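Handout, section 3.2

Students often ask what a structure token actually looks like in practice. Rather than define it abstractly, here is a full record for 12716_t:CDS:1. The first block is the sequence as you would receive it.
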Amino acid sequence: MGVVPIVNENDTISVSEIKFGDNDTLSAIAAGMVNADYLFLMTDVDCLYTDNPMTNPNAKPVEVVEDVNALRDKVTLPLHTRFLAKDNPMLDRKWWILHGLHSVGTIFIDEGAVRAIAKVGQKSSLFAAGIVKIEGYFVAHQAVDLKIERTVKHDDINDVEVVMIGKGLVNYSSAEISRIKGCQSSDIEQILGYADSECVIHRDNLVITTKSDN
């Protein structure tokens, strides 16, 4: 049609509810939503380096990246290079949940729930029994983060580490989840007087960002 669409976040009408961070992030989300073959980011650096080449003469270029997670331990300053797509890309709906929606609250879950929803090769919904606590105010069908608090010992001192597990769309509001957390699904109707769903987040509306091998 002879038209080039321009998507720009740096706009005077942008508000926090519809901001994604910057135009690089927004372009990545847009490319994923339209299943683009390539996304080109223009920058003043020729490629990705293992460190800042302007301050570290020993920084080495990284021309192709196959696994972003494996790269994180090697690169201290992510810039721009060629990132290869995975053979099993994320479904459009889950991509939208993870990158297109702002989280309005947080649900903290226990280790049993983490094993159930995040174990490699397993797809389970999140049930009320695995919920420890919640933060924030939200209503049904909004997006929330899923996290777990783990005790980590540093120099004989116990510290609490918060780990991001995933993100999902809830079937119940924060007020309802506060009442049913830790309970069995069969008890929801007795507690609330109704049961819209047996799970708090259905597996189809759940995106896992941290996989578990246990």
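Discussion prompt for tutorial groups: The chain has a mean pLDDT of 79. How would you have guessed this from the sequence alone?
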